[in-house]
Write a structure and sequence with these properties.
The chain has 171 residues and is mainly alpha-helical. It has one domain. Helix content is 83%, strand content 0%.
């Protein structure tokens, strides 16, 4: 009887720990989904997009925003130079007009590069979400098993308690 009591206590602690893990895992999944949504919904990562993320993802988002801005700017500069050499960005003869044409081409190339970089980050986040979902499924399976074990032990303890009640000669 005492063994069943201790087993119930142990399983209850384990269930509580698993439930806490499940809550933390759901929260983690939600954070990654929020970050992926912020990436997919905007053309540029801004401080307001980043500020709305959880504290554990802010460093990643900040580093990505910096990297993406620098990498897409460099790519755009290279693409503008290539386009100029191939005659795709015409020489206008007017410095101001030429500057505007080149800035327009730069902006288009930068946008294309930024979209590609964001898609790569979203793909990485989607893989991380799948890992977290697998972890969540594992926790839920263990919880189900522990709860079934707990119910079984409670039934055994209840039967033992009924069988060990003193009868004082009445039965």
């Amino acid at each position: 009887m005492l063994m069943a009591f201790w087993e119930v206590q142990r399983l209850t602690r384990e269930i509580n720990d698993l439930e806490r893990q499940a809550i933390m895992t759901r929260h983690k999944l939600s954070n990654y989904q929020k970050y992926a949504s912020a990436l997919g919904g905007s053309s540029v990562m801004t401080m307001s997009n980043i500020a709305g993320l959880s504290s554990d993802l802010i460093p990643r988002a900040t580093m990505f925003a910096q990297f993406a801005n620098q990498a897409s700017s460099m790519s755009a500069m290279q693409n503008v130079q290539m386009a100029k050499m191939q005659g795709m960005v015409p020489w206008t003869g007017n410095a101001l007009t030429q500057y505007q044409v080149e800035m327009s081409a730069f902006a288009r190339f930068k946008e294309q590069s930024m979209k590609a970089l964001k898609q790569q980050e979203i793909d990485i986040l989607n893989e991380k979400e799948k890992e977290i979902e697998l972890e969540m499924n594992s926790i839920e399976q263990r919880l189900k098993m522990k709860r079934a074990m707990l119910e079984s032990i409670k039934q055994v303890a209840s039967e033992e308690a009924k069988n060990n009640v003193p009868k004082f000669g009445f039965g």
